[in-house]
Each structure stands twice: as structure tokens, then as C-alpha cells.
Amino acid sequence: MPTEQQLRQKTAARENLPENQVGAKATGDDLAEVQAEQNMKGTPNNPQATEVKESYKPGATTPNSTKGTNRSGGQGAKGNYTAQRIGNDKGSINFGKIHQNAACTKGISLNTDDGNHTMYMDIDGKRKGWTTFTGQGNFQLRHGTDNEETSDTIFINAVNGNIDIIATNGKIRMQGTDIELNAVGTGSNKGNIRLDATENIAMNAKALKANFKNSFNLVSSGLGKITANSQLTTYSSILRLVDDSCAVKPVPNGLERDVRKANSSLG
Prior knowledge:
Elements: H1 4-15, H2 28-38, E1 84-87, E2 91-98, E3 105-112, E4 118-122, E5 131-134, H3 245-248, H4 255-264
Antiparallel strand pairs: 1-2, 2-3, 3-4, 4-5
């Protein structure tokens, strides 16, 4: 078994060989291998390279290439020397590629020949741990063909933070055999379900049932109307009916206070 000193001597001897010096030219089998690689389809020395789309810039069009995927960084920009790319003119998979603005590194990304159609998982920077899908067409999920009706087939859980669903120029539709909305927060600022509409909130059903434990309040700054074409039943242990005449003609039961309260609630 060679000694450590002998191994060091062999290593030093290899380093001093002419072919291992900076700027040395390949010869023999090494030269043939280099020339074969340069003449592969999609490489700069091949005339067919002009037919290959430069789809994901910066980046090479050569399969298994790292050209254009590594950066040395500088002035706060991300950099690495281990990025890899596997692909062709139709699509590619990148490992460790840096975003064009050099702010984040993609641990892995899937890309088509259109730069707007991609998926990437960032591993550092301000988007560390983010998974992003972008595309110019539809995004579809279809699962549960082997599940039962009671199964929770698609599960989305934001452990901390909000869930935002936005249709910038379209509608948001929800459909199911039943739709359940549950607000489970506690305290005056949580546990609320809020509906805001710039125009109308329209409801159409066989029956409308509501149960309020403490109170309810219906306010309109304009007209109000209750219609029951069959029968209307109103019950209360104490029934107070107030109009604006109570404000100018005080009565013993203090109904003018109800008028002031009703008007202030419209402000």
C-alpha cells in the first residue's frame, strides 16, 4: 500500500503534466471527445443550433448544460456554481438556477418554451420556501375519482396567514351539494363572516332561516319593505313601533330616544 508521501508525490506529478496546465490544448482521445460534444445538436458550432429556441434566458440550449445558470453574485446578488439544466427547445428542468433579478435561487424549476409558463420553488432570499406557478392559460386540478362522497379530496391549509382568491377580471364560482362557511375565531375582532358588495346581495331559496343569540339589526338609509303574501307573524314580549312624530311630540315611554338612535345608526 503506498504511503501518504508517495500519494502526494503522484498527485504533484500529475499536476505538473503539460496537459493539466492552464491553457493546455486537448489532444488525442480528449480532443476527439471535445469535438464530438461541440458538434452535438443545439451547440454553437452546429449549424442546426439556429433552429433551437432560446426560450429561458439567461440559459443554454444544450442538454445537461450549466452555461447561463451559474452566477458569482456581487452587490447582494445571489450566486452559485452548481446549477444544472436539462432540456431542449420545448422545455427544461433547472436545478439551482438564479432569477433574472438575482434576488432568489430556484431550488428546482419546470419551464416550457414560453417564459410565462413555469413552476419554480425558491430556496433563499425574500421568497424562501415559496412555490410559484405561472401560465398564460388555464390552471386545473382534478382528483378524487376513486374517493367516496364524504372524503376530503382536496385540502388547502394555510397554517399561518391568509388565503386570497382573486379573479381580477372575472367571477368566482363555488358549487357543491352543500356549501359550509365556518368562522371559528374568538373575540370581538374574530369569528366573523363579512359580505361586502358594491351593488346588490341577492338570495334565492325555498326558505331563509336565521338564529341570532344576542341581537339582529337591519338598517336602510332608503326604503324598507317586508312582504308575506300568505301570512306574517310578528311576536315580541315588548313591541315598540316608532315613527318620526315621536321626535317632536314626547311621550311618557321615551320613544323619541328610539328615533334619535335610529337616525344615528344611519350615519
